[in-house]
Amino acid sequence: NIAMAAQMTDAHRRFLQVLMSHGIMEGSEARKLHRCCCEIHKVYYAHDKLDDFISTINSHLQPLFMQIRKGMSEDDGRAHYALVNLAETEVTKMASDYTENELELFRKTMDLIISSENGFASSTDILNLADQLKTKKMKKKEAEQVLKVFVEDRWLSERNGEYTLHTRCIIEMEQYILSNYQDVARKCNICHSLAIQSQVCESCGIGMHLPCVRKYFRTQTEPRCPQCNDFWSCDIP
C-alpha cells in the first residue's frame, strides 16, 4: 500500500500541470482539482487526502529541487498551495522575468513593507523611491506601471493605494525573507509561519497574523498574550 501511495499517476501529473499554470491556488480550488484529476484518470479519491496526494507529488519533485507548499492568506486565513523552486533564491528566480531596476524597485518595496508596523507600504512612499534607484532611475509613471505588473503577477497585493506582499510571494519567499530580514521579520506565534500583516504584543513583542488573532481570541473573555499573559491591547479584528 505504501509503495502504491508513493506512485505518481496521471492524476498527479495533471494536478501538477494545472498548478504550474496557475502559480498559486486557493485551497477550495485545489480540493476541486484533486477530485477532478482522480475522476478523470480513475484513481482512488478521498476528499480528506489532498495533503497525502501532494506529498506523493513532492517526493517526485524532490530531485528537481521543487516543492508544492501550503501557505495561508494573511487577509482571510484561507489555505493556498504554490509551486516553489528550492534551487534558486526567489529574487534570482524573478530575474528572468524583470529588468535589474524593476527588481531593485521590488526589493525596496519589500524593505518598506517588511519594516513597516502593519505590513503595508503606501504607493506614495514606493514611488518616492523610483528616482533613487542605483541601477537606473525610474519615472513615477513608469514605476506605477511596474507596480501594476507586480500585482498582476501576484508578487504584491494592492488595496486603496497600499501595497503588501501577495500570498504567493510569502509562500515562495518565506525562507529568503527570514534569513535576509532577521532583525524585523517575525513568525506568527500561533501558526509559526512568516507574518507580514500582524499585530504585535506591546509587552513581549511576539506577533500574530490577523486571522490567527481572530481565531485565538474568539473564545476568550479578556484577550491575553499567549506568550507573556499580559493584556492584548490591539483591537481584535
Protein architecture, described:
This protein is an alpha+beta fold and 237 residues long. It folds into 3 domains: 10-64, Aspartate Aminotransferase, domain 1 (Alpha-Beta Complex); 91-179, Winged helix-like DNA-binding domain superfamily/Winged helix DNA-binding domain (Arc Repressor Mutant, subunit A), CATH 1.10.10.10; 185-236, Zinc/RING finger domain, C3HC4 (zinc finger) (Herpes Virus-1, 2-Layer Sandwich). Helices cover 45% and strands 16% of the residues. The chain is built from 10 helices and 10 strands. It has helices at 2-5, 10-22, 27-40, 50-61, 90-94, 100-115, 123-129, 140-152, 167-180, 210-217; strands spanning 24-26, 66-72, 79-85, 121-122, 156-159, 162-165, 186-187, 194-195, 198-200, 207-209. The strands form 4 sheets. The protein has a 3-stranded antiparallel beta sheet with strand order 1-3-2. The chain is globular, with a radius of gyration of 20 Å.
Keywords for this entry:
45% helix, 237 residues, 10 helices, Arc Repressor Mutant, subunit A, 3-stranded antiparallel β-sheet, disordered N terminus, Herpes Virus-1, single chain, alpha+beta, 3 domains, Aspartate Aminotransferase, domain 1
Detail the topology: elements first, then pairings.
Elements: H1 2-5, H2 10-22, E1 24-26, H3 27-40, H4 50-61, E2 66-72, E3 79-85, H5 90-94, H6 100-115, E4 121-122, H7 123-129, H8 140-152, E5 156-159, E6 162-165, H9 167-180, E7 186-187, E8 194-195, E9 198-200, E10 207-209, H10 210-217
Helix pairs in contact: 2-3
EC number: 2.3.2.27
Protein name: Non-structural maintenance of chromosomes element 1 homolog
GO molecular function: ubiquitin protein ligase activity; zinc ion binding
